[in-house]
Amino acid sequence: MTGRLNILTRKNDGVDGLVAVEAWIAKSFDPKLMEIVKVRVSQINGCAHCLHMHRQDALKRGETEERLLSAWRQSQLFSDRERAALTWAESLTNIAESRAPDADYEIAQSVFSEDELLVLSIGIAMINAWNRLAIGFRLQHPADHKRAA
């Protein structure tokens, strides 16, 4: 694999802007629930770097391996609020196919305030952006760094 730009070591106003949005999200929405969403979106997008990072962050916030490894639709381990967030996350992440159907929106709208739904949606957009940057610039999974050393 050809080496690519390491966006995490390069000073850039655009990346700083993304980080600032993440700080706002962290103050504006349930951080544990947002980590679950980030894990799921990173799974969908196949972003090993982000999946590893957000899995670790979720565990630090008290999430369990059992829930992170569960197929949430078939599991009774998730609340209605978590299910709504994950439904909306999948809908927005797969937007080319899903077109964000009214049914998914109505599920989210039934458990989140308008402000919460907006923050959740921005959080979903952000992890999708980070996934695309991490995959595009081939940010490595931490285990790959250890293996290379």
How would you describe this structure to a colleague?
There is one protein chain. The chain has 149 residues and is mainly alpha-helical. It contains nine helices and no strands. Helix 1 packs antiparallel against helix 8. The longest helix is centred in the last third of the chain and has 23 residues, at 114-136. The radius of gyration is 16 Å and the shape is globular. The mean pLDDT is 94.
* Number of helical elements: 9
Poorly predicted sequence stretches spanning 5 or more consecutive residues = none
E-strand count: 0
What is the residue-mean pLDDT, rounded to a whole number? 94
Strand fraction band? under 5%
Distance between the termini: 17 Å
| Residues in helix, % | over 70%
Instruction: Report Rg.
Output: 16 Å
